[in-house]
Design a protein that fits this description.
single chain; 167 residues; alpha+beta; Nucleotidyltransferase, domain 5; 32% helix; globular
Length: 167
């Protein structure tokens, strides 16, 4: 099954009955507010969660902290936040930047990563999940670059500097 913004993966040997397929398509078309995501790794839902990207990458078995972060930039108002998979009450969000400096989608993404790093013990392994390629590229620039890398002109220089300090 594949709809405009939804997909469902099943094992190649699995047969999905027509009524189950119709129910999945109907559920995918329902619009509404945000759902609260609850990961249950028991029973029938175990197979579902193991078929997601993080499940296939081994994230649910990761022995350290598993944290997902995201940022938003809507009408020049930026926000960032993260949520820890195992500590349901451990989430944080904040407003990012100021309208006078302008905005970019990378600023809130970088801020979400910074918040997650700041709240993780240095000795604790961290698996950080994000949906922003720019954040990954920004971090990659600092690996092995020595004195060549610079923050001059970066909109999120303050956030990157604080993040680099932690790393």
């Amino acid at each position: 099954m594949s709809e405009e913004y939804a997909s469902c993966w099943v094992h190649q040997d699995c047969h999905v009955a027509d009524e189950q397929n119709a129910a999945l398509k109907k559920a995918a078309r329902i619009s509404g507010g945000k759902d609260v995501c609850q990961v249950r790794l028991k029973g029938r839902e175990y197979d579902y969660w193991m078929g997601t990207e993080i499940g296939m990458l081994g994230g649910y078995g990761f022995q350290g902290r598993v944290t997902a972060g995201d940022g938003s930039d809507k009408q020049s108002k930026m926000g960032a936040g993260y949520n820890n998979l195992r500590r349901k009450k451990k989430k944080q969000q904040c407003k990012v930047g100021c309208e006078e400096k302008g905005s970019s989608s990378n600023q809130p993404e970088s801020a979400a990563f910074f918040l997650a790093l700041r709240d993780t013990l240095i000795e604790e392994p961290l698996l950080y999940l994000c949906d922003n390629q720019s954040l990954l590229k920004a971090g990659t620039r600092w690996i092995g670059e020595g004195g060549k890398a610079t923050l001059v002109g970066a909109l999120d220089a303050d956030i990157l500097a604080a993040t680099i300090e932690i790393l």
